[in-house]
């Protein structure tokens, strides 16, 4: 297993185009992960309010 410093050195030794590709790939992956985490959180929230019998209306949201 590589240490973090070894990984960084390995990345720094890549040509700039490959570094850019890696950065784009990691950024995209992180964005997708955030979306998944948000969706999972929203589903948990919905389940919790349904199990508690809580009902949201426009009056509650806009007050």
Number of strands: 0
The fraction of residues assigned to DSSP E strands is under 5%
Q: Work out the helicity level.
A: over 70%
Structure class? mainly alpha
Task: Please give a structural write-up.
The chain is mainly α. Helix content is 79%, strand content 0%. The model has no long low-confidence stretch (mean pLDDT 83).
Detail the topology: elements first, then pairings.
Elements: H1 4-12, H2 16-52, H3 58-61
Describe, in short, the structure shown.
This protein has 63 residues and is an all-alpha fold. It has three helices and no strands.
Can you give keywords for this protein?
63 residues, mainly alpha, 3 helices, 0% strand, elongated
């Amino acid at each position: 297993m590589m240490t973090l410093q070894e990984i960084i050195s390995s990345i720094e030794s890549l040509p700039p185009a490959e570094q850019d590709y890696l950065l784009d790939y990691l950024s995209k992956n992180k964005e997708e992960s955030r979306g998944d985490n948000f969706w999972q959180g929203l589903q948990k929230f919905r389940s919790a309010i349904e199990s508690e019998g809580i009902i949201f209306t426009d009056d509650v949201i806009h007050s």
